[in-house]
Structure formats: structure tokens, C-alpha cells
């Protein structure tokens, strides 16, 4: 295969991967962040302790985390059909990617929030801050560098998941590598795809590290 | 200004507060002195209900805080400032942002906030530092930010949890001087807890000594140093205990400038030898404690004269 033949394959595949990862990142933050906050707030010694509810939530999150992604993807096919009306194509795979990444990200959010000292939380409460204010103005801003680091790890994991999703009909770089590189023995394309994935992950990680460092004032 | 009565707090098997009463008068600096684990922090955190006592009531500025619901309590807390041992500043905000934080909570508009932050930073001697980040400041400066933040809502009361314990001695004195100044200029009532006698000696008008979740002794420093056998006096003026047989321990308070000892030696047929003692500045008064041996025919009369002169005379058995 020549470069002229590879480019028309690589470009749309990259766009598909970017779309899958981009949308699922957005939804992962949308659902994962509140769940992570809830895991901390509801915990014993949290802002609004509710140990029973917290235990249920933790259990559900752990189930999500313990299923291998490929199994999860297949297991939730009915759910995917319900949400997007189809189970193939890039859009359909945003659902399993999100479902797979939410518990993962929620745990990272939980860890980041736990890093915030109890002394600043109590200082805010001593000033008469409501619980919502403590979450909005203390917990989240103070944990921001950790949240960005967690988000970076999540995006990188999503790129990995998306390659897997690709092989089941989601398209993207993973799909390309399997269809051409593996099934048609186009070794060069396989190598190019792998290199491309490595470069993307490296760039994202560096960007995430840089942002986290800029936000940290320790 | 602050009344606590019958406060009890238990953590599992540990009784952190075992029936504590406290009466802090308006405009005074009240120190709670005790060793680590005595229950001081728990007591302070019960005063603004960061910790809810198992039993007892807390009244601040006439308002019974223990009876309030959460929203009302949050309102009441805005009139109670608090400073912390490790400053508890938000690293995500600048110095100005930290001082503005309580004002944001109170819903003060931005322009008013900025004006007030400027005033507060000037009050604590941090003009021009508003744009700095907490990590760029020294410990003493961080505590000044903490103080400015605590004063943002014009509180009637300031609570201080070991506010100088993380600072070196010179910085400690500066922060204590600042607290003393705020107490004098703003009429701010300050309840501070500490494990350092030095803090009590430097700034407090009254003190409660805590051990094992109980208040062992409390009152104004002026009264306590005049109370024979008080724990405060023994700790401020360490003399060997028990006093050697035949010795006499004299406590001077309020006789500054009067040469009582030489008067005694001149007027009576006694020899006086000094065994130990020291003089301290306490609550604006010069207080001394002297252990002497008095010998001679007139010893009894000499002691009576000392008592009549207002000294506290403790005779060893
Ligand atoms: N949140 C808590 N959980 C369990 N035990 C606590 C808690 N807070 C304080 N204690 C215990 O209560 C006692 C008094 O603590 P504290 O009020 O912090 O003392 P101090 O401030 O005088 O050092 C200690 O034995 C401490 O271990
Ligand atoms: Mg303490």
C-alpha cells in the first residue's frame, strides 16, 4: 500500500475515533463527575453522610468497573438500541464507551476529591457555607488539578476502548488496523495506525499533564 | 459573649468533653490551655457547631446555636470568625480570593467585595499581596490572610485553634500582637485554644485550663494568680514542689514599685534569703512569685505585715 492509498483510509478513521472518544468523554464527565462527588459527599464523615446509599452506589460502580469492556459492550446492546436506535456505527458506540468509562472516571473523581484537606472544608463550613457551596467553591476547584489528571487517564482509556469498539462495527483506527492490518496482511498500514495511536495518546497525556500543572498552586 | 454549659462529646469510647462550662465576656481574650488530647479543639468546634455536642448548650452573642436549624446556623456562623493551625487557605485562590470567599458566601456584590478585601488586607498588614498565591507566603503571612478572611463578615467573635502553633517564636509574637490589636481596636472577643503557656501569658485576659475533657480551673488571670495554690500560678512560676519545710512563697500582684521586701527586713528583726522566683508581665500587670526563708524573732509579725500589704503568703508545712 502506498501513502496515497493509506491517507484516504487513515483520515476518516481518525475522525471517527475522535468523534467516538470526544462524545463519550463529554458524556462520561456529565455522568461521572456527579457520581464521583456523590461517592465522597455520601460517605461516612462526608458532607451529607448516607452510608447505605453510598454502599449501593459504590457497589454499582464496582460492577461497571469489573466487567471487561468487550463483555460490557455486548451485554448492553439492548440498552444501546434503546438509546440510539441502532447498534452499529460510531454514534452507537458512544453508549458502551460512556457506560464503560463513567465508573472508571467516577472513582478517579472520588480519589481527587479525597485529596482536598478536611481543614479547608471545615473552614468553609465555619464561614457558613452551605453544602452545595462547599462542593462548588471548595471541593471541585481545590481538586481541579487532580480532576484534570483523572480526565486525561480516562480519555486515554477511552481511546483504547474505542479501538476495541471499532472492531465490532464502530469504525475508527482500531477497526482499520484489524480489517487491513490483520485480515489483509497490510503490515505497513498496521504499523502506521499503531504509531498514530501512540502519538495521539502521548500528545493528550502531555497536554493533560501541562494543564494539571498549570492549575496546581502548591 | 460566649456561654457554653454542660458540653459533652464522646467519640466511641473516648470522652473528648466531659461536662464543660465556659463563660467568655465581651471584648476579652479568653485562652483555653491544655495538653494535646485534652479536648480543646473539640470544645472550640462545638462553639460554632462544626461538631454537635452530645449534650449541653452553646450561646454566642445571645443566640442559642444548639437550637438552630442548619440554614439558621449557617447565618449565625457568618458572625463567628475562625482561624486555624494550618491556615486552611484555598490553594485554588489568590490571597484576595481567599479573603473574598466568606463575602461571596454572604452574597456581597463584587465591587463591595473588592473594596472590603482591600481594607482587610491593609488591616492585617498585607497591602499589595492580594495577587499572591498562598504557597508564595510565609507561615506568618498565611495566618494574616486567615485572620483577614475570618474578619470579613465583621464577626463579633473570633475563634482560634492553635493559630500560632505552626509558627516560629518571633512570628508567633507578631500574630499575637495583631490579635491583641484587633481585640483592642475592634472590640473583638477572642476565644483561643493553645497548648503554649506563653500564648496565655502574652495576650489572654482570662483562661480555662483543660485536662481530660474537663475544665480544671478557670477565671481571669488577675484572679487566678491571686488564688493560693492555683494551677496557673504554679505553671507560670515553676518553683520546686513541694516547697521545702520552713520556706515561704510570696506572690506579688499589683504592688509594682513598692519595695515590700526591703521594708520587711528594715522594720522587723528578720533575715530573709531568697530561694527562687521570677517576675512576669501578665494581663498588663507585673506579677512576681518569690520563695524565701525567713528567720528571726519577728518572723510571724513579718508575715502578717506581708499579708497586710496585699501579698499572698503560702507557708510550707
Ligand atoms: N473526630 C474525632 N473522632 C474520634 N476521636 C476524636 C475526634 N476528634 C477528637 N477525638 C478525640 O478526642 C480527644 C480530644 O481531642 P481534641 O479535642 O482534638 O484535643 P486537643 O485539641 O486538646 O488536642 C482525643 O482523644 C481525640 O483523639
Ligand atoms: Mg487540637
From TrEMBL, chain A:
UniProt entry tagged with the keyword Repressor: no
Keyword field contains tRNA processing: no
Family according to the record: Belongs to the binding-protein-dependent transport system permease family. CysTW subfamily.
Domain ABC transmembrane type-1: 14-205
Assigned GO CC terms: plasma membrane
Annotated transmembrane regions: 20-42, 54-77, 83-106, 146-168, 188-212
Key words of the record: Cell membrane, Membrane, Transmembrane, Transmembrane helix, Transport
Compartments where found: Cell membrane
One annotated GO biological process: D-methionine transmembrane transport
Membrane topology, as annotated: Multi-pass membrane protein
Alphabetical list of InterPro entries matching this protein: AA_ABC_Transporter_Permease, MetI-like, MetI-like_sf
Name recorded for this polypeptide: D-methionine transport system permease protein
UniProtKB/TrEMBL annotation, chain B:
InterPro entries (UniProt xref): AAA+_ATPase, ABC_transporter-like_ATP-bd, ABC_transporter-like_CS, ACT-like_dom_sf, MetN_ABC, MetN_ABC_transporter-like, NIL_domain, P-loop_NTPase
PANTHER family in the record: AMINO ACID IMPORT ATP-BINDING PROTEIN (PTHR43166), METHIONINE IMPORT ATP-BINDING PROTEIN METN (PTHR43166:SF30)
An example Gene Ontology molecular-function term: ATP binding
Species this chain originates from: Nonomuraea wenchangensis
Family from the record: Belongs to the ABC transporter superfamily.
Superkingdom of the organism of origin: Bacteria
Protein name: D-methionine transport system ATP-binding protein
Assembly with partners or alone: Homodimer. Forms a membrane-associated complex with FtsX.
Lineage, top ranks: Bacteria, Bacillati, Actinomycetota, Actinomycetes, Streptosporangiales
Listed Gene3D superfamilies: 3.30.70.260, P-loop containing nucleotide triphosphate hydrolases
